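Page 42, continued from yesterday. The earlier attempt failed because a stray header line got pasted into the input along with the sequence. Redoing it now with the clean sequence only.
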Amino acid sequence: MVAALIALQTQTVPARVSSVRDIHLIRHVVIIMQENRSFDSYFGTYPGADGIPAGVCVPDPRGPCVRPYHDAADRNGGGPHGAVSATVDIDGGRMDGFVAQAESGRRHCVQAFNPACTNSSGEDVMGYHDAREIPNYWAYARKFVLQDRMFEPNASWSLPSHLFEVSAWSAFCTRRDMPPSCANALQSPGIPPDFNRNRTIPIYAWTELTYLLHAHNVSWAYYVVMGTEPNCTDDSQVSCVPMRPKARTPGIWNPLPFFDTVRDDGQLANVQSIAAFYAAARNGTLPAVSWVAPSQPVSEHPPALVSNGQSYVTSVINAVMRSPDWSSTAIFLAWDDWGGFYDHVVPPHVDENGYGLRVPALVISPYARRGFIDHQTLSFDAYLKFIEDDFLGGQRLDPRTDGRPDPRPDVREDAPILGDLRRDFDFTQPPRPPLVLPVHPTPGN
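This time it went through. Structure tokens are written below.
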């Protein structure tokens, strides 16, 4: 019965593309980026979505093939998820390397977010969750927009993905303030000091979005967990983050402080504590563009608990929904890479960097279409494109026009295959009321 009701509510008909003028009703964009889940691992059984096909059985070098299965575990292992693993998992379009990669990954790593590592027995990567474990995520899909062709922008791990999130590129640079010194780096851009053994500061000299936002006097902030946030104890708390004391956002998920442009523009103070986000939401002072990054315990990056991540994300979304800014906000929620988990869709080829594998993604807004499944081909470049169209008059991160030429292979926002997020909105409808959900939800069915 529940599945039938979801299917009845779900719309998959093409949407009218709203005009650029329409999207100016959105005065606040909030991008929440979680970690390491494939689309099939969270929404592979969602009615109407391009989910797990019948008859799948992925080869296991140690025994019989492994079929996708419902996984009720709150803690998952995942698999290796660097550039080499992406190639093996995709396997020329056969999408059958996941179990073998999980079994071959490094064990007992000190840094849980090392892309070479796994805590999986192998079969774990074939498990999927549904409303029984992630009821809030499924509730957002039913009430707002689920995107079933959102691909990681690059076929690699977290750091390159987060660099793409803010700049549409991942590069290795040799000279500060010299964008021409940068070279394409799918797997190994400069590594922040909390991840590399030498604790060296990376050089990110190419152009990222805040350079254009600053030039156009568009406000922005990048919110991270500083390690002193309040613990999540009950649903009455608007700002509750279920995590260990002193847990913080690692540098690989917080790249902006290392960009020359952020430092040169005097914008380092725009990288703020998540507590400041809750305060801005409460006061109706959200910046035009917000990025929200987790700490490890609430990231959903294995071995972090799925429930802790869902609680944290719900608290962030609830804060926006209770805010005076709700009526003019678009929330884009996604997961940065596939984390080694199974997905059956072959990623499109855009350039030497990607796209990577498919990840879950949702659009939550008072203007979001209700129960809509967006089948457009998308990547995080679409977030940049939406922001550029809304706040920058359509200016792109284009070396020919942005004033800081760099040798990036292409202008990702203009890729012909990239969809348009305006399709996910109906700006003719009255703003919809918020959907405040319990931070600790009762599992669905």
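Notes: The CA atoms of residues 126 and 410 lie 34 Å apart.
Reminder to self: strip header lines before submitting.
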